[in-house]
Fold these 4 entries.
Entry 1:
Amino acid sequence: MNKKVIIPGIIGLGLLAIVTLFLVKKPGFPNSGVAETADLHLPVMRFGLPVDSFNIIEGIVKPGQNLGEILTGFGVPMSKVDQLSRNSEEIFDVRKIRSGQKFFLFQSPDTVRKACYLVYENNLVEYVIFGLSNSMSISRGEKKVQRMQKSASGIIASNLWNTMTDNDLNPMLAIELSKIYAWTIDFFGIQKGDKFRLLYEEQFVDTVSTGVGPVYAVEFEHMGKNYYAFRFSQDEGFDYFDDKGENLRKAFLKAPLEFSRISSRFSGSRLHPVLKIRRPHHGVDYAAPLGTPVVSIGDGTVIGKGYQGGSGNFVKIRHNAVYTTMYLHLSRFGKGVSTGSRVQQGEVIGYVGSTGLSTGPHLDFRVFMNGTPIDPLKIDAPPGDPVKTDYKQDFIHTRDSLTVCLYSINWHR
């Protein structure tokens, strides 16, 4: 069906529903079908309260200020404050009122200015209403979250974060993109002139952005190559796929070399074979013949290479924003491996040796997750399935539709 036909049709039905809602039959002509616009004066509501019925004072909780200080400042007796605190125990702990948060006092519109309600904003979405009448009621509420479909683009001048802020975009988009492309693009190595455009959702409350929702599609041009990402669901949950239907989540190799045996495992206290003292061993030692090729377990960027004390010759590779690996005691380095160079999964980055503090040829292999060493034999980095045959046509339709939308976005610096 033609998309240009569907959209106006939906809009037309929506307008018809709205018009029907505000039409009423003329009295005296119940069967005439003649209608007139209802003379409705709907009140403006805020926090579920009619704004026109109150005088409203807006304030900010000051450092050290509590509920009692706020309310007594507006003429509410302390006896009422105590009762209100007791009534609210199961709904909201008044001791958790935080400085810097907004509150709104609803007063009677007459000259008495009697305090009727206090509304405390717990965050941008949640609020608590304290009724100050004889009932002393307490209730929670949530503001309506508006979800907007948005598009954006940018050309990198310094880094991704700055590009987002320079284009008045939510900087959290930079984090979302780094997650989507964690296995594909090294965002520490993006260059001036790289560019992106994307389709995404953003949530707003009272015109204030509360966060970025799903990113639906991205085209990221890095070093002259286009990397696509499309959000698509198959079986359970959503994942991101490139334009060929391959999952952007990749797996690590199980081991960085062909080895004969594991000679030492990850441990918090190991007797060092040379120093003869106990200390942590944050890696796995693979015994292998001198000169055995050592490969990178995944795509990444070399962030360290050289000779370092007991580690001997080493190579350190950052794979994404989460994982980094190290390869120690190498006899020599792979061809073209240097700090800043990009390596592919399975690429030779060095050869087994016995440099540094070592009793024989082996590879000490280490993995870091968010900077913390973890057991390499327990890495949880499963690959994502590609688009399955049963979903292929649906994916192609989604990809093509989103690509048309991406290409309609102009580039902005």
Note: The first strand starts at residue 23 and ends at 25.
Entry 2:
Amino acid sequence: MTAARNSKRKSATMRLREAELLLKVSTLCASLDSLDEVLATLVDITSQEISCQRATLFLNDPQTGELYSRVAQGSLQREIRILNSVGIAGHVFTEGEGLIVSDAYADPRFNKEIDQQTGFKTENILCAPVRTAKGQIIGAMQSLNKIEGQFTEDDLHLLEQITLQASIALESNIFSERMAEKRQQEMEFLGLVADVTAE
């Protein structure tokens, strides 16, 4: 009886802690002004809460059919781009289901190229699709190398909840960024037309 009560109390405590974390994620992401800030915040929160060495958030670029990451932990500080069907992230993005990989190099879906570029050795992977509130998949979130032991189903559930909470901020910032790029292109075109007309 006591063991069951303790288990129930522990479960309630874990649910409360998760709810507090998700509220924190939602509030933090809503307060940020740019996509890069949201990405950096999510990567930091994920690596801390999931207790892993690195985290990377890949977003889909529908124009090129690639997943890209502008914010990654570690020494590589440039954008990473892969086809949106390649690697564990590509598999999770296309299939729409989270994945736990206990031995990265033993999994044929694993893309070794990023390890070769970064010098980082991936041992195990936790990856979840990033979905909007309407269920559209816009990317994939990866956690690499669990600090103690292996990734669990609880870790996967938490990662899915974190990405769901952040998806509204991600979606609105992606939209704002694309509109700004479109405006910039239109301004450049109008400038070119004005130059041609003046000549």
Note: The CA atoms of residues 75 and 118 lie 7 Å apart.
Entry 3:
Amino acid sequence: MTERIGSGAAASPAVESERVAKLEAEVRKLHTVLDGVEAYVYMKDREGRYTFANRKVCEFFGRSLDDVVGRTDRDFWAPETAAKIAEADAMVIATGEAAAIEELNCSASDATPRIFLSQKSPLRDAAGQLVGMCGISTDITERKQQLRALESTTALLQTVLNNLDAFVYMKDPELRFLYVNDKTAALFGQPIEAIVGRTNHEVLPREIADHFSATDRKVFAEGQKQVMEEMSVGADGRTHYYWSHKIPLFRGEQAYAYLGFSTDITELHETREELRRLAMTDALTGLYNRRYFMEAAEREFREAQRYREALSLISIDIDHFKWVNDAHGHPVGDEILTRIAHLLAEHARKSDLLARIG
């Protein structure tokens, strides 16, 4: 015969004992779970006395659970730290709202400061009455130290990169800029944030973007360092020339980006072009010289033979030029040569080649 227990009736000793056993088993299970958590888990009453602390809290304090329960933070932390913790706990209890707090704490036995990220929440009983607070704290001291070291290293690298006499940049396989240094941003005439995340064609004129994109794709296609001469029009509207190194960066076997270094060689390029021009130009008249004319004529003659095309050649001689030099001096003769050269140049077509061979 089963005994019924009404809502107002007291439970039998056997039933009450079974309930207690189940509750104790549940509490042990919860303790086991919380002791396995790699964080500091604790509960306190409204007066700040500990009512529970998991294994990590007890190990940190160097006390057993029985020795922690009933004590306050003043028993474990330096006075200033204990006051700050009590203030944060009181705020949670007073507002009844959870709070995420970064705490810098020093224990009473060790003056070494530790940084904790704490999530503190109000604790209520079955009737909804606020009876205390519970918290989960994670020691982020090493993470903070690593972050500070990383920030310091990043600032140092940024200083170095921004003071290099080179344009430094990174792009992904879609040719979007991942990074540019200050010098590169100044060249493009845009702030860094307006460049990062955009492609060549979104930042540069089409013709130049096409040229850069071709060399960029070669880096990813071949997966090897590329070295080349490139050109770009700067914010000043002037054409600049660069000697560029583009180095693929790999994750496994796949290049996820490339790092580029470009040095402005505009002055060197212009000097080289000037030397090239001087090497094939007559200094007096500005026309091509005899050497270049002979090379070009031979090339044109071969082309005409190959394609069976007509080729025209006109040789002009100035009559009595020696008499001019003898009668009026070489400066006058030079002036005549220069004027005739300019006259011929004015009437020549772009495809014509004018040279002084005398």
Note: Residues 13-35 form the longest helix (23 residues).
Entry 4:
Amino acid sequence: MQGFSIMNAPAPQLLRDYLIYLSTIKGRSPRTVEAYYNDLRLFLRYMMASRSGMPLPADDPNLESIPFATISREMILGARLSDAYSFLAYVQSVNNNNAKTRARKVSSLRGFYKYLQSKTDLLEENPMEQLEIPAQRKSLPKYLTLEESIHLLESIDGKDRERDYCIITILLNCGIRLSELVGIKLSDIRDDTLTVLGKGNKERMVYLNDACLAAIREYLAVRPEPPKDADKPYLFVSSRTRAPLTPRRVEQIVETHLKAAGLGGRGYSPHKLRHTAATLMLQNGVDVRTLQELLGHDNLNTTQIYTHVDNSELRIAAEANPLAHFEPDNKKD
């Protein structure tokens, strides 16, 4: 990931060791490691400020003026559950963090202090073990309809049309994650199969249908040649620099074409195209366990949210209610 390096990021040694553990042992992606770093950096800064007894700076909600890399080992190990709840209240009121964002911070704190307890033996007990995750509103995934998906594909244009069309075709047909898409190398494509590297460094195979194969062929015919020193060239590259596309650049590409198709402004993103692929497959006869494997979900419950998007059985049950077609006599005339 561009712009972030574990070794160059200012951090106390305990935190740096944890980030290296996440990356090298747990196989977390660079984006995930950076998210943990940002969460824990803010927590440690908050603890330094609150423990000092000084008022928190009103014009510095992220507490960037506090040099947290100098935090003492004793203060990190001395964190209490009350520190965490006070911190969560702070980011909710000052940074306007919603429940989902605060839940991620809870996961960051739990993981860090579990590591300090179980992997370093510096703590006898994990002070964050009982830290509860904020209740979150469970929303149904946003997705494009079949008609909207076709309209999006038909509207793709511009100097990088073949590349952008290939990106969106794969997202809509294969349902892979953004990180998996940008990580595709030419060597990952064999005949009609694609090998992707998912969460936790887990590889899985995805089959490419005719639409994907055709889009890949058209893109490869115009794709810039990789630099001569490229070991295993990536599939999707910049037409100007020939460098691999970053996740943010793909987000911009998807947002641009959604907006051009009149589908922007509705919270659609590369991840929503993943939702679209999953929903369309489920609506057209793919069973939920096959979908779980295709999406790379560890837990079936994660996949089952798609069964609530357009559940025909629920519609049948509603129609089976004997009151379904009841109409009062005074409304019949």
Note: The radius of gyration is 24 Å.
